[in-house]
Design goal:
Elements lengths: L2 E3 L2 E6 L1 H7 L8 E3 L7 H7 L4 H12 L5 H11 L12 E5 L2 E5 L9 H5 L2 H12 L4 E7 L3 H10 L5 E8 L5 H8 L6 E6 L3 H13 L1 H9 L2 E5 L5 H20 L9 E6 L4 H12 L3 E8 L4 H8 L1 E3 L20 H8 L4 H14 L1 E3 L2 H10 E5 L2 H15 L5 H17 L5 E5 L7 H8 L9 H12 L5 H4 L11 E2 L4 H9 L4
Parallel strand pairs: 5-15, 6-7, 6-9, 7-8, 8-16, 10-11, 10-15, 11-14
Antiparallel strand pairs: 1-2, 1-3, 4-5, 12-13
Bound molecules: pyridoxal-5'-phosphate (PLP).
Length: about 500
């Protein structure tokens, strides 16, 4: 199985090449040339298996140049004791035939661990084959959760260096503390003045700059990406959609073959795109419901066909979804255009030059055949957290709250009662401030982050995940803030390269 680029479909490379390089030379994203198909028997065979074993059956379909034993080694390292509880991705009943898929039992208490605990192992294998022993430099722009998850995944992994940039005012105090206190010999962290898109644009520019590339080569290093544009980030996420479906069969909620709806709290469009790949492989899916916060660029696109990033940027209580450019949408468009890379390139060039693009009526209708979309603001998010806790005894974080709200509205509006899964992307304790506010009728608290965690435990009796408690009293290691124009210099400094 080979990979091509969304902006040059004459390219054909291995999965190792795609994972080692992260992004294609001409700026396109790597996508599988064709999507492997699975049978209903294959899905049945997943039911009695553990999460790791399910991953061992699904990943080789996409990573054909990795040996099956190599993959088993990777999944063993990734999905072992680093996850709390019996399984990395449990499915729990919310109400009626609506369930929650919890993806936050890993070391950073958010869903990015599902991929980032595995990626470093996929990457070291790929780098051996593709980079000839050069050191892989991981450059990450983060809206909060990716950065910490990548730091945890890569810390002290042989042959790698990791550098993380985050928007100074765009992450929660807990997320900031998680990153500034990061341990590890091969890590660097810097805040930048600006929002997430500034950080992401800056990283993309450095990543594609020929001068920087040459400089790294002189020093026997090569860039790789752990951002959600890397195929090695996407492919692990396909596994949990199959796993959730297998769990629903096991729990007797559905029979094999029944369709389900997935609602996904969305930012960069990586998580929900993995669900689209699962659907294309043959997982019985009725609708993928894309949930956004007040940054509603995706809701507008999925309902009107016009993507317009020139709009007000909102800082919300669900900061990991505060995004105006959803990079992974490019992969969806490419597939929906049947692999037409000229047209995909035209649209995304227009996005960077004009700040917008529109797709044809026909394409929009095809998109609407699979996707529904909705958005909600902060007040609605806090309301639904309180309501879900009171009525269903389920405590959700703010991102999951957005998804619950959007799903409930979808179900009401359409009358579609297909069995549904709401994807839960973070522990409520990771966003204690907002969750506590939701449970106290909107009243803010003067407590610090750790006191809030304790207070929330006191009110709900639900224990906080262990990794959050261990942060208490840790001194920050990385306190620098730089301007967007200084990012390149900061990269050289953190890599100890003379400029
Ligand atoms: C990253 C993140 C999201 C958004 O996921 P995408 O793959 O970027 O769409 C949602 N919730 C949380 C908690 C996240 O960390």
């Amino acid at each position: 199985m080979n990979y091509t680029s969304t902006r040059n479909n004459s390219l054909s490379v291995s999965s190792s090449f795609a994972i080692a390089n992260g992004i294609s030379e001409e700026g396109g994203l790597f996508v599988p040339e064709n999507i492997p198909q699975v049978s209903s028997e294959f899905i049945n065979s997943l039911v009695p298996l553990s999460y790791k074993q399910r991953a061992d059956k699904i990943l080789p379909l996409f990573l054909s140049d990795y040996g099956e034993d190599e993959i088993k080694g990777c999944t063993l390292a990734a999905y072992g004791d680093n996850f709390e509880g019996e399984t990395p991705a449990p499915v729990k009943k919310l109400y009626d035939n609506v369930s929650v898929l919890e993806l936050w039992h890993g070391p950073t208490c958010a869903f990015k661990d599902m991929a980032l605990q595995l990626l470093p192992y996929l990457l070291t294998g790929a780098a051996k084959r593709e980079l000839g022993g050069k050191k892989s430099v991981i450059l990450v722009a983060t809206s909060g959760d990716t950065g910490k998850a990548a730091l945890e995944g890569f810390k002290d992994v042989e042959g790698t260096k990791i550098l993380v940039f985050y928007p100074d005012k765009g992450v929660s105090p807990m997320q900031k503390l998680q990153m500034t206190t990061q341990e590890g010999k091969n890590v660097g962290v810097s805040a930048i003045e600006g929002n997430f898109d500034d950080a992401q644009t800056g990283v993309k520019e450095i990543f594609t700059s020929p001068e920087v590339k040459a400089k790294l080569e002189e020093n026997n290093m090569s860039f790789s990406s752990a951002n959600s544009i890397n195929w090695g980030r996407l492919v692990p996420q396909i596994v949990y959609y199959f796993s959730a479906y297998a769990d629903l069969i096991q729990q007797g909620v559905i029979k094999n073959g029944d369709k389900v709806n997935f609602t996904v709290p969305t930012g960069n469009f990586g998580n929900i795109l993995a669900a689209y790949y699962a659907l294309k492989m043959g997982l019985p899916v009725n609708r993928l419901i894309c949930a956004s916060n007040e940054n509603d660029v995706l809701t507008e696109f999925l309902t009107t066909g016009r993507y317009n990033r020139l709009r007000k940027f909102h800082t919300t209580v669900s900061p990991s979804m505060d995004i105006l450019i959803s990079s992974n949408l490019e992969r969806l468009i490419f597939h929906m255009l049947d692999g037409n890379s000229d047209e995909t390139k035209r649209l995304f060039d227009s996005l960077s030059v004009n700040g917008e693009y529109s797709v044809s009526e026909q394409l929009l209708n095809e998109i609407k055949g699979v996707f529904a979309a909705g958005n909600c603001d902060d007040a609605e998010t806090l309301n639904v957290i309180a309501k879900t806790y009171k009525e269903n005894g389920y405590l959700s974080d703010t991102h999951t709250g957005v998804a619950i709200k959007v799903y409930n509205a979808y179900r009401e509006e359409t009358g579609d009662k297909t069995p549904a899964v709401i994807v839960s992307t973070a522990s409520p304790y990771k966003f204690s401030n907002a969750v506590l506010r939701a449970l106290s009728d909107g009243e803010s608290s003067s407590l610090n982050e750790f006191e809030m965690v304790e207070k929330l435990q006191e009110i709900t009796g639900i224990p906080a995940p262990a990794p959050l408690g261990s942060l208490k009293g840790k001194a920050p290691r990385f306190t620098g803030v730089c301007k967007k124009e200084e990012m390149e210099r900061e990269v050289y400094r953190l890599l100890e390269i003379k400029n």
